[in-house]
Amino acid sequence: MSQTRLPPALRSLPAPVVAALALALGALIGLAAVTPLLGGLGAPAERLSGWLLPIAGISLLVVVSVRSPLAGLLLTLLLAPYSRFIPFDLDLGAGIPALSLPRLMAGFLLLLLLYQAVRGQRRLRPLTWSDLAFGVFLAAMTLSVTESQYDHTFAFQSLLDAYVLPFVYLYLARQIVRNLGDLRWYSAMLVMAGVGFAFLVIREQLTGEVLFYSRESARYSASFQKVISLMGNAAPMGVSTAMTLPLGLALLIQVFSSSARPSRGRTLARVTLPAALAFIVLGVYMTYNRASWLGIAITLLVMAMLRPRLRRMLLPVLLLLAILTLVFWQSVISSPAVNERLLEDQSLSYRSTVAQLALDMVRDDPLLGLGYYNFGPIAKQRYGWDPAPLFGIYPPAHNSLMFILVSGGLLALLPYVVWFAMVAWQGARRFLTSPGQEETRDVLAAGAALLLLYFAASATFDNVDAVKMNLIFWTTIGAIWGGTYPGQRISPVVPPNRPDR
What we know:
Elements: H1 8-11, H2 15-34, H3 43-67, H4 69-79, H5 101-118, H6 129-145, H7 152-176, H8 180-207, E1 218-219, E2 225-226, H9 234-242, H10 245-255, H11 264-285, H12 290-306, H13 308-327, H14 329-333, H15 336-342, H16 346-361, H17 375-383, H18 400-408, H19 410-432, H20 438-458, H21 467-483
Antiparallel strand pairs: 1-2
């Protein structure tokens, strides 16, 4: 990773200061955790949660980022799903866009990288053709905002959080994650995030209590809770958890590699990492969301096909599961998980109707679409379709591709799909041209699994409303891209007449 070259006082923070920063972050999180209990204090508690905590937390992240942009990026991504509830987001009042943690840190990290590039302290990686494709997609979606039936301020903020901000984080991760060592830190952070998500899922299924999200509990069926905690819906929660698995498996291969140097930390990782990944899989299963289950299946299939080392590790576990399934086959096929979720076809009928309606809608303007977020209003007003009427809420598309098609037409959908194809092609080229570079091939295989997982899941729900899930996906793709970048071992540019520190 490129060394940040700022004034000495900031460039060489002593170890005690770094420790103090870590303790301060822990204190802030602990204080935030008890903030909901301070309601009896009235105005002081409101100032604490509304201004002091966000400013203190973001200031701490800024200082950490100056010392290490990678650490700043990792902490931001780890805290972002919780920033609204901790709280780390600055609420500026009605009608004014909130200064959320992801927005603020995206702006700061981008300025920091540009500052380093101008000073000759960092060589920025160039833009690519896939960036151009995504830029065309964003331009088409921005144009569609003008035709939205929703308030234009809401529509623009939705576009910013759902699509623009994740793309900025993709760019940031591509610049900040400079090599496989950085990517290992990123993978470890992602596993930590997945364990946190899985804990919330399992807790809600066992207790029925919703955390963070201010909604009453909901159910898929008589047997299963529909997870709401943190992200408001089981699909983004489950898919976000599943997306932490591919790089976790790549890290697992590295931890158990015979060429790895033995150490106390690696021994600990060989115990904790398999347990963490198993806990993540359990959490995904207990969402009882089929898109999330599909994500696990895609991950295991792609990784096993592309990485023989992982296949040899997973084969005994998969054989044991297959034997247990055969032994208890009758119990498996009669279980609620199979009959109430896996074989339930109501949602399949819903999505089939969505596809038919969307294709009929865009006949009016197939090139530019019918306006941002307009699928629901048009479905209800023109076709009278509202299968689960709720006051003031239009029926959702539950299909991200159809949402984009109706919103921005082919001008939006085609470059969006092309972006996925181009990233897949670039990853395949790197994979095929990296013989002998086993760790690089491991993480590229994880990237292939992640790309396919997200694209397949996008056809089953609205990613426009899953902003934290989008943030995780695009940042992770950027991190894999940066960690496997050709020529990644090139030393950072050093300004003339200055020693390389």
